[in-house]
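User: Show me a protein chain along with its predicted structure.
Assistant: Here is one chain, sequence first, then structure tokens.
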Amino acid sequence: MTTGARVIWGGVVALQLGHAAGEAVRSWAAPRGLRRLLLVHGPGGGPEALIPHLETAGLAVFAFEHPGGPSVAAVAEAVAAYHFDQCDAVVAIGGGAAVDLATLAAFMAGQRHPLPDLAADPSAVDPRGVASCLAVATDPTGLAALGGARVLIDDRGCPFLIRDPLLRPGAAAWCPLSGSDGLCAPVVALALDAGDAEAAERLIAAGPEDVPEIALTVAGLLERRLGPARVFAAFAEVAGELPPGPTLAAVLRSVGGPESTLSFLSRALDPDGTGRAGLDRLPLDGLAHLDPATLPVDISGVLVMLGRDIPARRRRGGRGGAARGRRSE
């Protein structure tokens, strides 16, 4: 281990600190006999310098850039890439979006049922179908994504929640990039949204050395409870291509919280106040399919804030659909 390397054990997954990203990947893959890695990363955060370092160590690395918001389609693309390149493990490098997608791709690598079905029936998950996964978090949002709960948008544009301990990566490392301290603000928002104002305020005041432990606390919190801002930010990112930061700030402003924390989030995440304007134009058709069984989070307060209603579910077309409609009247 390099000088200063240590492990935080008190979170949802043991977190290794003190290694560079390349060394973290190598020291994880080698003893497990893993040789072909799907390397999931975020837009603009390509691992160009990392790949040659890993290839020198005898690893075959296949980079996969996160294609967009948290959708079933994005996960399907990542799983297809995993099998096409005959990978035997998944590695995330980046923030929360990369960690979310990588852990979902690993989770789905060998499943026999689609994600929405597994969300509705967790007993159908096959633990043997989960691939090995390492998460290399480069900013605090990556740490907050280490828990076992994900919000996704299905093929109809409807948000749903899947929660399973197998969504946690098998191992995790903290390899912060220069300037990543400013990315505490989204984690502050998630903590406040999940009902832990104390953790949110601790993150605002935290020094760099305190961030990993507090963010791991938030990861555990988010595994147990997601709030409406988290759900709506995921929905808005896919349905309206809205950035999650301003959406989080706008939604939290509506549902309330400590004024000092809300002011901090507004300045950090939505300095020009565009979050609310984007939400006012957001198409809501996908929300017609909301199912409390797979989305046990009440987002009605957000819709009240927007002055909008969940659209009525459309009847199916054709003779069969018309007949069913008449029978139900």
